[in-house]
Structures are given as C-alpha cells and as structure tokens.
Amino acid sequence: MNASSEFEHGHEQGAAEDSSESVAVGKYGRLPANPLESSGEFNGQPIRQFVVPDSADGLRIDLFLTQCCDGYSRSQIRLAVQEDGGEVDGRIVRPSFKVRSGQIVRFRLPEPSSDDTIPENIPLDILYEDDGLVVVNKPAGMVVHPARGNWSGTLTSALAFRFQSLSDVNGPTRPGIVHRLDRDTSGVIVVAKNNAVHLHLAAQWHDREVAKKYIAITAGRLDRDRDWINVPLGRHPYQRDKQAVRENHESSKPASTFYEVQERYGRVTRVDVAPKTGRTHQIRVHMAHIGCPILCDRLYAGHATLTRGELIRAAGLDATHRGVWTTGQLGEVILDRQALHAAELTIVNPQTNAEMTFHAPLPDDLRRVIDLLNRSGETE
User: Where is the composition biased (Basic and acidic residues) (predicted)?
Assistant: First the structure.
C-alpha cells in the first residue's frame, strides 16, 4: 500500500506508596507541616484538607474521602480523583491509592451534577440525519458531555433539546454519544438515536473500521512529506489532564498516526492527519512528540492564543517592514483554540449497510489563519 492510500484509509478507534514529613508543594498550593482538617478554595473551587487518622490507615483514597465528605457518592468521589482532584502529601494519586496514617490529603470537591442531561436550546449544525443516527459539526469550545466544570452548554444538552429519543448505552449524561472530540477540536461527530445503532457504531470504532481525517496547523516545520508516528501513549505521570509518550510503561497503549503535509509556510505546516488508533489527545501528543505541536494547543504547545504578528513571523515574513499591517493589527489575537479540525468521517450506516463519508467545512477561525498564511508567507 502506498502512502497516499495509507492516508485515505487511516482509521481511528479513545504507585509506590510513600509519605513525607517535609513541607510539600502540590497542585493546590503549599501544605503546612502539621495541618488540621480544614477547607478553602483553589481557583474558586472548594478544597477540603484532611490528616489521615490511624483508623483509616490502608483505606483506598476514594473510600476515605467518601467517609469524610458528606453528600457525595463514592462514584462521584472516584471520578473527581481520576480527574486530578486529589493529592496525598502534594502528589496527585489514583483512586486506588491507599492512604497511610498521618498523610495529608487535599481534595477538590466535585461539582453537583444531575443524573439526567438538562436540555438546552443550543443551535446545532446538522450534517446528516436519518431514523438511526445524526451527524453534527461540533464547534470549537463546546464540550461533548457534562463533566466537572462543564455542566451546561454541552453537545448532549443541545441534542436532548432537539431530539426526543437518543441511545442510552453510555448512561443518562451521555445520550447518543458514540465517540468524542476534545472541547477545542471542531468537526464531525456521530450520534446514535437508538441502542441498536449505537452498538453497531461502537463495534466499528472497536474494530477500527471508522476512517477519520483531521486538518491540523502545526507550530514547526515537518521535513517529511508523509509519515507514520508509532509511539505508545499513557497518562502523564504528574499532570492528570495530559497524556504523554510512555514507552515500556505498564499504563502505555499502542498508538499510531499517519500524517501528510499539505503546505509549508516557513516554520508553520498544514497537515492532514489520520489516526489509526484513538487514544486520548493522540494527534496532539504525537505531533508535539515529533517537534510540531498543534498551534494554540494550551496543553502541548505551551500557548493558548496566537496573534497576527506571531503567525506572520513564524511564516517567515516581517510584515512591519513591508507596511502591510499596523502595530495594532499585528497584536490582534486571531486564534484562541487548538488548530485541529475533524474534517471527514467515514462509517457504515448500521441501517442501510452503506458506506457514508461526512464532511465538515473548515471553520472561519482556521480559514482566516490559512488565508493569512497564504497571503503573508512563501509556501512550498
């Protein structure tokens, strides 16, 4: 199979225990050497702090916190810890971590949630609809389903308002959701109206029979016209909201991504990307791993906004010397989310058995970036 056909048919599927007597600095601030049980806030969110008593020695942290925090179920506590909500002696831990007498536990309380998705009248860009499924062009900035910090304004809330019946395979807070896109990734997402269609689609994802193509703009120059990135991924060892390349680690999973360069603009590259597997943040981590992170990727590129001047300089043109832009125009922010768009999705329709490909047009913000690159820089 040649590189082009490989691209066209790329598929996507999604501790030692110790204690310290010294003062520790954790994600939620400095821990005093001998704290009492207390409460406070971190970035406006409630934080509880405990010293583990002798009676709780050896308990899992999720069970310990469930006993300490009235009004929360163990599943809520476990999810909050999984999502970076708990520290022991300044170190982020997993729900299975067993606490020891005298350790200092700090916990970010989960926000109250509903067992059901609350319908909201949010406009949707419907690309396709039949009796069994809906295909939506998700905008950047929209979270797919409710989670900590994002209980409203989600795709599932918009779907619940518009459609009377959606699958419930993934529970009441994720009606119809077969797969996900990151909050700041725009593009094609498929939604199931009933459980039979959902299970059929889920099997396609599991068997890697779903083809996806993303458009990405990267910070960096890719020298190869096309290539595979084959490095395993796992959760970042210290930052629980990030993934990382984890070779030879028990938590790592194989991950494979194919890319093909579409245009080079100095130190900026536009690429089409087809992930074969579907690990969390896969494209973002893989591109960063080869030295070309996605533009404006807050987690993996280290910057969350991009000004016109920054983009022009990266593209290799000093616009101030040519009088094209004013100083104010050069300082204007033109992108404030990761430059990643799910442009195409190919599935087999569970009800007709026909292969279908859906296309989401490039959103205005990314189109403006590409137009500026074409105008300002020398392409190859």
Answer: 1-14
Catalytic residues: 182
Instruction: Let me know whether 200 and 265 are in one domain.
Output: no
144: amino acid identity, one letter: V
Q: What is the pTM of this model?
A: 0.71
Q: H-helix or E-strand containing 64?
A: helix 61-68
Residue holding tokens 């973002």? Answer: 284
Show the tokens assigned to 259.
């890319």
Residue 239 and residue 168 share a domain:
no
200 and 245 assigned to the same domain: no
Question: How large is the C-alpha radius of gyration of the chain?
Answer: 23
Structure tokens at 334: 């033109």
CA 221: distance to chain centroid? 24
Indicate the SS3 state at residue 265: strand
Do 52 and 64 meet the contact criterion of CB atoms below 8 Å apart? yes
- Other beta carbons less than 10 A from residue 122's beta carbon: 17
43-100 per-position pLDDT tens digit: 445 678 889 998 889 999 989 888 887 667 777 788 888 776 688 988 888 888 999 9
**CA of residue 68 relative to chain centroid, distance:** 31
Q: Residue 56: in which H helix or E strand, if any?
A: none
Residue 187 pLDDT more than 50?
Answer: yes
pLDDT score at 68: 82
- 104 in helix, strand or coil? strand
58 and 103 part of one domain: yes
- Decide if 255 is inside a domain: yes
Angstrom distance (rounded) from CA 134 to CA 161:
14
DSSP letters of 168-194? -TT-TTSTTBSS---TT-EEEEEEESS
Pairing between β-strand 256-265 and β-strand 268-275 as defined by DSSP bridges? antiparallel
Enclosing domain of residue 326 = 211-376
CA–CA gap between residue 3 and residue 286 (Å, rounded): 18
162 and 137 housed in the same domain:
yes
* Cβ partners under 8 Å of residue 376, min gap 6: 311, 312, 315, 317, 319, 324
Query: Does 114 reside within a domain?
Result: no
Residue 178: exposed, middle, or buried by beta-carbon count in 10 A (0-12, 13-18, 19+)? Answer: buried
Are the CB atoms for 144 and 180 separated by under 8 Å? yes
Residue 167 falls in which region: left (phi positive, over 0), alpha (psi -120 to 50) or beta: beta
